[in-house]
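Human: Cast an eye over this sequence-structure pair and say how the chain folds.
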Amino acid sequence: MAQVTVTLDADIAIEAMLLAGTKSPQDAVELIVRDFLARGHRTEARTGDAADGQRVTNPKPIVQEG
């Protein structure tokens, strides 16, 4: 897997470490990003995409006149 170097403000890195419960800023950022991506995938799975809205929409009933 490719490695990427990201520069963060020290305050952000410390806050990320506290939220993630890690002692390494690199581990903290990796865990937070992985969680963010997983949450996005779960949301997409639950809501679907824009094309799914047309598939599940009930057609309007035909009103009979007369």
Summary: The mean pLDDT is 81. The chain has one domain: 1-47. The radius of gyration is 22 Å. Residues 1-47 form one domain.
